Amino acid sequence: MNAPTAHPLRIVAVSGGLQRPSRSAALAEHLLDLIADERPCEQRLIDLGQLAPMFAGAVWRDQLPNAVERELAAVEQADILVVATPVYRGSYAGLFKHFFDFVHQDALIDTPVLLAATGGSERHALVIDHQLRPLFSFFQARTLPLGVYATDKDFVDYQLQNQALIDRARLAVQRALPLMPLARHAQSSLADEVVLA
Length: 197
What we know:
Layout: E1 9-15, H1 23-38, E2 41-47, H2 48-55, H3 66-76, E3 80-88, E4 91-92, H4 94-101, E5 112-119, H5 127-138, E6 142-143, E7 148-151, E8 155-156, E9 159-160, H6 163-176, H7 180-196
Parallel strand pairs: 1-2, 1-3, 3-5, 5-6, 5-7
Antiparallel strand pairs: 3-4, 8-9
């Protein structure tokens, strides 16, 4: 049997920002770029602000248009997932949760997930541990040790400017790097189990 052809890591980021430009999208893109600096990868940014009109009223996955289905499939097939959401009323946006409600509950098992959020002030920083981490624990994903939380004052023209935050983002990625080969191994093992079944 021939060994499977290696492919670059598939890094998928989901931005829950509903406007463009978006601080959440800017943070997600920054994290994508940091990972790409360290590993050969294919990057994909899913902007829920653009997708929202296509899935907001859907109840079941088979009601979704192909454009949304493609993005869900990208999330489910990701080797590494980056999620970044603005904080609304102390939690992630309802449409962010609605999108992940369509993701198959077993699709993210052992997938490393780098958690990030943006908010108007530091008082929302616990959203990463109190809201995002439990959500992805349900999926049995590997939420990465460090989350990245940014406030409005950390950006200038939707670009990260706070050096302490830039350093934390870099550290979060550095702490994630050892888990990235494990993601590929877990995906390959799962694929082998499906073939053998």
